[in-house]
Design a protein that fits this description.
Blueprint (H helix, E strand, L loop, with lengths): L11 H17 L4 H12 L3 E5 L6 H12 L3 E5 L7 H4 E6 L4 E6 L6 E5 L6 H4 L3 H6 L1 E4 L2 E4 L5 E6 L12 H4 L2 E5 L6 H9 L3 H6 L7 H12 L5 H14 L10 H17 L7 H12 L7 H9 L5 H8 L5
Parallel strand pairs: 1-8, 1-9, 2-5, 5-8
Antiparallel strand pairs: 3-4, 6-7
Helix pairs in contact: 1-3, 2-12, 10-12, 12-13, 13-15
């Protein structure tokens, strides 16, 4: 159980900044307030974010908007089928003046990396991100190089039925705290896009609301959000429900910890100091579906047809305690 902080720091100013950031982001990504709130919660929980949807839905716009408003150093890598791991991590170059090899750092050495269309690269190149996402370091020629703090990966992924894409392995999917889809805009939001200013022009006008210090403070504040025993009971009942079916593999211990951390972050973004069952319900599908083997096509079809994903079905089966 997460204990209440005995000597609490006042995070209220930081939470107001977070609320301001979210309001600005919702002016860029229209009519997707639930997705933007989850995406911001993912970042403040210290997790990595996978955005999967059809091309042109605003995945890259959401990623770039988050990067700019968080005020972190940012690199974007366009993944292609001929990309090599060294194109991301860096490589050792022989220096003739010193007669030795020097490590030239790749674009992954940044605070926020946008891995655009990650599934267009080969599994070998995709796996180059595994150590960085888990250990926050890169090992090359037997030497480890730490990545900046904080370090986030936002990856975008196209549907598997498109040509020239590779499936992300289970180990890679598990490194993403959340997996989100934007979907089509509402008619009203689409009209605003047609009549309004270009999204890229709007982003160019954005000023960073947070910075490295504020993001780290928010991450600290997320860890201090209290989780009561009865809420942990509810969380564990949901997790247990994922493990009783033969249709899919259950949530791992790492997935359980991810679920708790995501719920704490969602509560923090909401301006609260304690996790409620509603916070767990809000993040459950985003954290759990891709870990249960819920494939992109199945999830997209379910949403378009008004059907439930696996996680949404579990939420209906497990009642809130008390």
């Amino acid at each position: 159980m997460t204990q209440p902080n005995q000597n609490p720091i006042d995070y209220s100013t930081n939470q107001r900044q977070v609320a301001q950031l979210l309001a600005q982001l919702n002016q860029i990504v229209l009519d997707k307030s639930s997705v933007t709130k989850l995406a911001l919660s993912c970042m403040l929980a210290g997790g990595h974010l996978l955005l999967q949807d059809l091309p042109g839905m605003g995945k890259t716009t959401l990623a770039q908007g988050l990067a700019q408003l968080l005020g972190l150093s940012f690199n974007r890598v366009q993944f292609t089928n001929d990309m090599l791991p060294a194109d991301i991590l860096g490589m050792s170059i022989y220096n003739q003046s010193t007669l030795s090899f020097e490590f030239r750092r790749g674009p992954i050495f940044t605070q926020l990396l946008l891995a655009d269309e990650i599934n267009r690269s080969s599994p070998k190149t995709q796996s180059a991100l595994l150590e960085a996402m888990e250990e926050r370091q890169v090992t090359q020629d037997g030497q480890s190089y730490p990545l900046p703090k904080p370090f986030f990966v936002i990856a975008t992924q196209n549907p598997m039925q498109q040509a020239g894409v590779y499936p992300l392995p289970e180990s890679q999917l598990d490194r993403f705290l959340m997996c989100l889809s934007l979907g089509y805009p509402s008619p009203a939001a689409e009209r605003m896009l047609l009549q309004g200013q270009d999204r890229r022009a709007l982003m160019a006008q954005l000023d960073a609301i947070l910075d490295t210090k504020a993001v780290l403070l928010a991450q600290q504040g997320v860890q201090q959000v209290y989780v009561a025993e009865v809420v942990l009971d509810y969380l564990q009942q949901l997790v247990a429900q994922t493990r009783i079916s033969q249709e899919y593999h259950g949530l791992s211990p790492r997935g359980v910890l991810s679920l708790q951390r995501a719920a704490q972050a969602y509560a923090y973004v909401s301006g609260h100091t304690e996790v409620t069952p509603e916070d767990i319900q809000a993040v459950f599908a985003a954290v759990v579906d891709h870990r249960l083997g819920q494939r992109f096509v199945a999830a997209a079809n379910s949403q378009s047809q008004g059907l439930q994903t696996l996680a949404q079905r579990i939420l209906t089966e497990v009642k809130v305690l008390g």
